[in-house]
């Protein structure tokens, strides 16, 4: 066999952000936003005009990433040659990534292109060092511009100071090469007393008057400006540490700022222009241009501003006739304010810290505060659990701080506050390097982005990235042409992903990018599996005993048709306009076109209470239709409110959580299984999806003794294969129509054969090969994959031996195999291609010849950069048929990948033509 040149291009990468205030940073040099995504670090260019979203993921951490920070040592600040990304994780390590440019594999090509794609050069980062020392989860990292040092805080109650030593590597001939050697050095460990967990750090250099270097008490000459470190966490005070400006200096506790009434969640230093920071009562000051301001946010719902003043003079306060400090306070906030002056000395200069202002306006915990990078305008950004993002400015005359812009949601999640144990709201807020864009991360792991339009003087929301925040457990293509991709996971959501065709109407200039277009299901249980029943319907299974069937709405169908070009054929006549969840309900309700559609008086009585607290049906129609009449993919606000699908049916019968699900290719049958530890529950239940009754076709199929992990129908729906934890596979065959019992209908399946020793350990996945034409017509082939690190190919016997399947080939891989899927067509002169996913996240493609199934073909491992970092949960090739966006051996085939690392990927596999 001639070796093809197989290549993989990531067309789509969807992943949600970690809900931690320090888990993202926006780089001022490259414009890249890096954020923690489970145990990975995702890279996103918010300024990308093609809206490609996440273009790369950095893998290496073994647990959730809590802290992300870009860092440039002063030695390379101008050139950017030594530009780093620092990431801290629950795995107790800090990983150092070095910046470099590489040709990214993200495609911007339109669907009319052949095998070529337009790639762009994007910043990537290479792992160069791992710093160890913390004994518990790392919560935060802080860097200071112009300093060789950075600090980290962890749940072990310590703050550690680090230095990165960088240098050129040497090639074999003794000359310097381009590889940068990086070695991390622990400089100091600060044990916080009284002990508390640091949640927020802020670090910066202090301004000093120019003086001749002099000997300090330790015999060292001052050679650098002193530094100040603010530490906040699981106490209501902020500790101020100062490091003298001599070599070998260490941080020492100088002050403890009191005022907050709860944990401190975020800290941020900034410089401020003296004219902007002066109030009318401060006009007599000669200069405050060297003052530093510290913003602190807390769970007490307040933001406090602190002034770090350099010099012997103190910031004057307004005094009354008796010479006493005059403070005008409201009675309910008087106890939170303090005018105490904290003084300290560093490198021969005197400093003082005083309380400056109290900002209130949020109604729940404040997670993040950040100063605008635009130093010409003093602006502070804050995000809160109350679902709001606020921009604050001081009044140029009075100096009083007030909110100039408020963005986000208002009362969207009823009762969803931290007081009720909710983890809602916005967790992260960041400014763009230019200060004209802000982003926030919401509780769903999705990003929101606002750009400031000078013409309208408004902040306008723009398309951002979304994704799952926990393991993605199931994926399913729309079965006719693969017009969209469904994914479901442990974050209790089902999401619909599709291509957005935008730009010029000309096919040659049209751009294509993938986005989340709907969130059909928001559940209260972790979702385990999903399968499509046609262009307008799907069924899902969760950690509950029943399955739920959902129908698409007209609003979503129109949105997909307008923005993706997917039509799916004639729309059903009974398609509802929209869906909503009643306030006290759990099921998505269809919005009827007219209230007279309720023919059942009893149903009217049952729904009356729910309708009394829900919007009128006509109002809901109008809201959904108008909200989704968009020129771009839905924003997070739309996804969470207007893109639900109404629940059509519930399927009962199982006694435990649903574990496996499959639908026939014609959409008329549903096969399901649940978690089981006995024969009674380890059964396969079939449901007739073609009838209006949705009744179970009895009797259920029995063969297994433990949980069934995977179910798959053959291409012609005549066979059903099941595999499970009991290490066996079973094949059932369709034999007749009509099940047992009165009124039963639908096809009946009978057990054909089973192999109780199919693998030596549990079997996790199975897939049928496409039907073979010509001499091998009628030959049935399926593959199984197991925890024993093998993939086995089973071929049906011929003539008199058609009721048995024999193992014709066995592949041994490096790790347990968790997912397999056959390309649904035979390629070239009779070749099967099988995609294989491992427990480690690695992916590979393997070839088998139709006329030589006993011989294993060549295998191609996909690059690690295109693979998940955790176990692959499911693989699914896009359907190959007629219609828009269909793949073939010249234009490549698309493979969807779901993983436990919370990512959904669509890879274009080129070079399968043999």
What is the count of β-strands? 59
- Overall pLDDT confidence: 84
User: What is the strand content?
Assistant: 35-45%
Helical proportion?
under 10%
Q: State the CATH topology of the domain at 17-105 and 120-172 and 186-191.
A: Methylamine Dehydrogenase, Chain H
The CATH architecture assignment of the domain at 17-105 and 120-172 and 186-191 turns out to be: 7 Propeller
Distance between the termini: 8 Å
Count of runs of 4 or more consecutive helical residues:
5
Give the overall silhouette: elongated
Strands side by side in the biggest sheet? 18-19-20-22-21
- Cα-based radius of gyration, to the nearest Å: 31 Å
Biggest sheet details? 5 strands, antiparallel
- Poorly predicted regions are 108-119, 170-177, 273-288, 323-335, 411-415, 593-614, 882-886
Query: What do we call the CATH homologous superfamily of the domain at 17-105 and 120-172 and 186-191?
Result: YVTN repeat-like/Quinoprotein amine dehydrogenase
CATH class of the domain at 17-105 and 120-172 and 186-191: Mainly Beta
In short:
The chain has five helices and 59 strands. With 914 residues, the protein is mainly beta. Belongs to the WD repeat ELP2 family.
Please give a handful of descriptors for the protein shown:
single chain; 914 residues; mainly beta; Methylamine Dehydrogenase, Chain H; five-stranded antiparallel sheet; four-stranded antiparallel sheet; 5 helices; 59 strands; 5% helix; 45% strand; elongated
């Amino acid at each position: 066999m001639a070796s093809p040149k197989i290549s993989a291009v990531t067309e789509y990468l969807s992943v949600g952000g970690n809900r931690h205030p320090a888990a993202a940073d926006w780089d001022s040099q490259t414009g890249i936003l890096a954020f923690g995504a489970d145990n990975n670090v995702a890279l996103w260019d918010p300024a990308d005009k093609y809206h490609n979203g996440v273009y790369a993921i950095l893998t290496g951490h073994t647990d959730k990433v809590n802290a992300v920070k870009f860092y440039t040592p002063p030695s390379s600040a101008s050139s950017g040659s030594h530009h780093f990304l620092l990431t801290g994780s629950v795995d107790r390590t800090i990983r150092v990534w070095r910046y470099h440019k590489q040709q990214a594999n993200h495609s911007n090509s339109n669907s009319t292109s052949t095998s070529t794609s337009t790639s762009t050069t994007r910043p990537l980062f290479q792992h160069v060092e791992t710093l160890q020392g913390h004994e518990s989860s790392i919560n935060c990292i802080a860097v200071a511009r112009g300093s060789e040092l950075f600090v980290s805080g962890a749940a072990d109650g310590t703050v550690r100071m680090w230095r990165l030593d960088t240098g050129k590597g040497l090639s074999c001939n003794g000359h310097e090469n381009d590889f940068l050697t990086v070695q991390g050095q622990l400089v100091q460990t600060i044990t916080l007393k009284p002990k508390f967990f640091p949640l927020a750090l802020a670090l910066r250099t202090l301004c000093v008057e120019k003086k001749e270097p002099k000997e300090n008490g330790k015999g060292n000459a001052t050679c650098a400006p002193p530094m100040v470190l603010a530490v906040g966490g699981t106490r209501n005070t902020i500790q101020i540490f100062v490091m003298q400006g001599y070599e070998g200096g260490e941080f020492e506790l100088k002050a403890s700022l009191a005022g907050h009434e709860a944990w401190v969640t975020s800290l941020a230093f900034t410089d401020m222009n003296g004219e902007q920071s002066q109030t009318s009562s401060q006009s007599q000051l000669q200069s405050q241009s060297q003052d530093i301001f510290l913003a602190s946010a807390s769970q007490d719902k307040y933001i406090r501003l602190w002034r770090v003043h350099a010099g012997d003079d103190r910031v004057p306060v307004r005094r009354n006739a008796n010479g006493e400090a005059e403070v005008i306070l409201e009675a309910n906030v008087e106890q939170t304010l303090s005018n105490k002056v904290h003084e300290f000395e560093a490198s021969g200069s005197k400093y003082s810290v005083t309380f400056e202002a109290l900002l209130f306006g949020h109604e729940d915990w404040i997670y993040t505060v950040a100063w605008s990078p635009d130093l010409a305008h003093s602006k502070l950004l804050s995000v809160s659990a109350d679902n709001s993002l606020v921009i604050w400015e001081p009044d140029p005359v009075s100096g009083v701080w007030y909110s100039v812009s408020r963005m986000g949601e208002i009362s969207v999640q009823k009762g969803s506050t931290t007081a009720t144990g909710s983890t809602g709201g916005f967790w992260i807020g960041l400014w763009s390097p230019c200060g004209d864009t802000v982003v926030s991360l919401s509780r769903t792991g999705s990003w929101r982005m606002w750009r400031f339009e000078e013409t309208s003087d408004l902040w306008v929301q723009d398309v951002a990235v979304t994704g799952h925040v926990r393991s993605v457990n199931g994926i399913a293509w729309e079965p006719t042409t693969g017009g969209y991709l469904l994914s479901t996971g442990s974050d209790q959501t089902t999401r619909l992903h599709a291509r957005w065709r935008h730009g010029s109407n000309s096919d040659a200039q049209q751009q294509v990018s993938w986005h989340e277009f709907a969130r059909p299901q928001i559940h209260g249980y972790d979702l385990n599996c999903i399968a499509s029943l046609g262009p307008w319907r799907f069924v899902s299974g969760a950690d509950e005993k029943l399955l739920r069937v959902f129908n698409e709405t007209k609003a979503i169908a129109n949105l997909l048709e307008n923005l993706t070009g997917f039509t799916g054929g004639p729309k059903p006549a009974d398609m509802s306009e929209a869906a909503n969840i009643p306030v006290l309900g759990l099921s998505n309700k269809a919005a009827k076109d007219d209230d007279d559609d309720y023919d059942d008086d009893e149903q009217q009585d049952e729904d009356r209470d729910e309708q009394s607290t829900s919007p009128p049906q006509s109002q809901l129609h109008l809201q959904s239709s108008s909200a989704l009449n968009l020129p771009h993919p839905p924003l997070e606000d739309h996804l969470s409110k207007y893109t639900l699908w109404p629940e059509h049916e519930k399927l009962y019968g199982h006694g435990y959580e649903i574990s496996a699900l499959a639908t026939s290719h014609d959409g008329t049958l549903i096969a399901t299984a649940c978690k089981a530890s006995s024969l009674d529950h380890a059964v396969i239940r079939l449901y007739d999806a073609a009838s209006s009754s949705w009744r179970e076709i009895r009797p259920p199929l029995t063969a297994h003794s433990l949980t069934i992990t995977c179910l798959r129908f053959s291409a012609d729906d005549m066979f059903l294969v099941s595999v499970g934890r009991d290490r066996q596979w079973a094949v059932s065959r369709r034999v007749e129509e009509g099940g047992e019992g009165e009124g039963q209908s639908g096809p009946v399946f009978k057990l054909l054969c089973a192999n109780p020793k199919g693998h030596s350990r549990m079997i996790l996945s199975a897939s049928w090969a496409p039907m073979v034409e010509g001499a091998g017509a009628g030959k049935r082939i399926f593959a199984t994959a197991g925890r024993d690190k093998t993939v086995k190919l089973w071929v049906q016997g011929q003539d008199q031996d058609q009721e048995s399947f024999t193992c014709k080939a066995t592949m041994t891989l490096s790790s347990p195999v968790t997912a397999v899927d056959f390309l649904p067509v035979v390629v070239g002169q009779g070749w099967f291609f099988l995609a294989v996913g491992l427990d480690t996240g690695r992916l590979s493609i393997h070839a088998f010849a139709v006329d030589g199934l006993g011989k294993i073909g060549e295998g191609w491992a996909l690059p690690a950069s295109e693979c998940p970092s955790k176990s692959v949960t499911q693989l699914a090739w896009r359907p190959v048929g007629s219609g828009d966006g269909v793949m073939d051996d010249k234009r490549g085939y698309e493979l969807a990948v779901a993983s436990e690392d919370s990512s959904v990927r669509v890879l274009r596999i080129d070079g399968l033509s043999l």
